[in-house]
Structure formats: C-alpha cells, structure tokens
Specification:
heterodimer; A: about 220 residues; alpha/beta; Rossmann fold; 2 domains; about 10% strand; B: about 200 residues; 5-stranded parallel beta sheet; 7 helices; 6 strands
Chain lengths: ~220, ~200
C-alpha cells in the first residue's frame, strides 16, 4: 500500500463531474439555493408565531423559554375564547395544545384545531414535559411538515410533467399527420404547422431528457 | 478475465453507515471532490444483483479505494457481534489489486495509530492513514495521500467541509429522508461538494 499517490493533472472539469452525477436539473436548482443561503439552513426553522393553549400556571415562563430557544414569539391562551380570538387575529406556525387542557375541554380543543388553519397542531403534556422536549417536538413536527411539502411538490411536478408529455405527444402527432395529408396546404400554413411540429419535438426531447435524469 | 477499465478518478469508499461517522463521511466526500476525485458508495448501485456481486463490480470500476476501519467494533445490539462487512470488502479489494495491480490501489484508514495492529494483524507492515476521528484529520490525510500540483490547502478544504456540513440537515430534509447514506442524499452531498470545490 503506497504512502501517497501522484495524481495526473489536469483534474476533471466541474461540468463533466456534474454530468456524471446525473442529478435532475430541478434538484440541482434546489441544492444551489440551499448553498447560496436562499433557504434556511436548519430544517424546522421557525417563522411566525406559536400559540400555546394551556391553563398551566407556569405557562408564561414556559412561553419565554420556548420563545428564546426557538427564536419566535409565543402567545399564551388560557382558554377557548382567547385561543380562537388569537387564531382569528393572525397566522400561527404551530398550535401547541396542553394535553391537560384537551382532556378537560374536548369541544374547545376541537374548535381550536378546526380554526388552526395551516398551523401544525401538536398536543403535549406541559406539566410533564420540559422545555427542551417541547422544543424538540416542535422542531420534529416542522421537519415532518417540510418533508411532506417537498414530497407533495415533487408529486405535483411529476403530474404536470406527465400531463405535458401527453399534450406534446398529441400536438406532435397531429402536426406531423397534417403535413403528410394528401390535400394541398397553403405554404404559409405549412410553415406554421412545421414550426409547431419542430417545437413539439424539441419539448418532447427535453421532457424525455429530464425524465431520464430523474430516474 | 477481461473487465471494464477502472475510472481513473473514482474512489470506492468502504465506510460504516452510522450516525457517529457523519462528519468523517462528509469530510471524505468533500475532500475527494476538492482533489478532483469522485467518491462511490455501495448504496449508489441499483438492486437486482446479489449484494456481494454489486460490491465487487463497484470495486473493479474504481481506480482507488479507501477502507475506513475506525468503527469496526462490536455492535451495541444484544449478543454483540463484530462488524465484518468492511473487512470483507477490504479482503475482496486486496485480492482484486493482487490480480490486477495496475487497475487498483487500496488504502486503509484508521482513527488511531495502533488499532489496526490489534484488529487486523494480517495487515502488519501496512501503514494505515490516521485521521484521529476528526474531519480535519481526514482532509489532511487525503491531501497527503492524493498528491497533485496546485491542490487546495487543508484550510481551504476545511472551509468547504464546514459549508457543506452546515447545509447537510437541510439537504436531508429536502431530500425527504433521514438516511444520510442513501443514494439520493449521497448524490446531493456530491453535488454540493462539487459546488464548494468549484467556488474556492
């Protein structure tokens, strides 16, 4: 086994190495955005506010600790009325409902969950859980949400791509058939149909390339 | 038997796929790209063939290999069992390099100088590369092992490592998997390591 290996120069180019990876263009764009700090570094990084619904006495202290650790504003609601009013006033990223509250007032909990909108609902036993655990649970829930959103976006992109492939294939077929028809076509129209056929062929090839890279 | 010539820039990474190895793994990927080399993992290869065949195909397709035995130890599961996969792959690689010395060069990497003598005494007389269990150690050893003109400095390599390491959680989250060693995340790590290498 040698102590060192002399590598030949020049080294492979950036372009050839990227090509070798065969990473879909869409993922390359996502990763470039991450590297250029256009996306939060920490999954589950919080934006917006948290609504903490609890009757616990130390709720205010807990809200301060959570706010400091998660870097967001935490609003405390001690009952149904205050919670619903807070939810109507503004968007929350997370609605944390104390299990003790939920056990005591199930209809109120259901009403709060119904009004929570896009906020991530979480139930946690405030009396038994330390702030660290609550922070961890909030981050994990947000990470799960983020992963679900990513997967949903991918599925939507795939559906659009499939739809587009079918439409483009139809366009290509019809334009090629029109060009092969026995009946004479005015030159200007023939030119336009040919342009449509060429454009469809180019989109079809580009879609096929993307599909191959993604597979 | 005739075989496809090995890619002159490819490196087979025989490493443990565990959480404790995270930073060392990232350092290997980043460091190899900094040196213009291309790392490969067994998880990259699609299924279909027997796992052992796939591993052997990968070894044969790579010009170099790095066998990191620093975490070869007893598993923590009940009935603690030694982890044999990596030594087995090292054995396959040594046999291949003996049969085809011009096609393959292997190296053993460890976290401390004398561990190899205890774990694999048959390799006595082989100098392992020691990374002391740190990312900086990996980068420094990679740079000493793979030598080329105008190679980046260890400090430049460390900057690239820090950049990629900071982004790794986000990459995993957007890849939709917690498995850092999955083919998808590995590919992503390769791409961002390339970006980091190119931005130096």
């Amino acid at each position: 086994m040698p102590r060192s290996i002399q590598l030949a120069t020049p080294r492979p180019s950036y372009e050839s190495l990227v090509k070798q990876l065969r990473l879909p263009k869409t993922r390359q764009t996502e990763l470039l955005a991450i590297m250029k700090n256009q996306v939060d570094d920490h999954p589950g990084a919080l934006r917006g506010r948290i609504l903490l619904v609890t009757k616990e006495e130390r709720a205010r202290n807990l809200a301060d600790v959570l706010g400091a650790q998660l870097g967001v504003e935490v609003e405390v609601a001690e009952g149904r009325k205050v919670a619903l009013s807070a939810l109507r006033r503004g968007d929350f990223t997370v609605v944390l409902i104390d299990e003790a509250f939920a056990d005591l007032d199930l209809p109120a909990t259901e009403a709060i969950l119904l009004d929570a909108g896009l906020a991530v609902p979480l139930q946690i036993n405030v009396a038994l859980s330390g702030a660290r655990r609550i922070v961890r649970e909030v981050r994990a829930a947000l990470l799960r949400r983020e992963q679900e959103i990513t997967m949903a976006r991918r599925a939507a992109a795939e559906a659009i791509e499939n739809e587009l492939s079918i439409t483009v294939a139809g366009l290509l077929l019809h334009s090629q058939l029109a060009l092969r028809e026995g009946e004479p076509i005015p030159d200007a129209l023939r030119k336009k149909i040919r342009a449509v056929a060429e454009l469809s062929e180019s989109i079809r090839a580009s879609l096929a390339e993307q599909k191959e890279l993604a597979s | 038997m005739p075989h496809q010539p090995a890619d002159p820039n490819s490196v087979f990474l025989n490493i443990p796929y565990d959480d404790e190895f995270r930073n060392i793994y990232i350092a290997y990927v980043v460091g190899l790209y900094q040196l213009g080399l291309v790392p490969h993992l067994t998880s990259e290869i699609p299924g279909g063939k027997r796992r052992l065949d796939r591993i052997f195909d990968l070894i044969k397709s790579c010009r170099y290999s790095i066998h990191d035995l620093s975490r070869v130890e007893l598993s923590s599961n009940p009935a603690a069992t030694p982890r044999f996969n990596m030594p087995l792959e090292l054995g396959m690689t040594i046999a291949w390099a003996e049969l085809s010395p011009e096609s393959h060069t292997w190296s053993v990497w460890e976290s401390s100088p004398y561990r190899l003598q205890l774990s694999t005494s048959d390799l006595n007389g082989t100098d392992p590369n020691i990374h002391y269990g740190t990312a900086e150690g990996v980068l420094s050893e990679l740079r000493s092992f793979f030598v080329f003109k105008n190679a980046p400095t260890v400090s430049q390599m460390l900057n690239a490592f820090s950049l990629v390491e900071r982004k790794t959680n986000k990459i995993q989250a957007t890849a939709g998997t917690n498995n850092l060693y999955s083919a998808a995340v590995f590919k992503d790590l390769c791409f961002v390591s390339l970006i980091a290498a190119n931005s130096e």
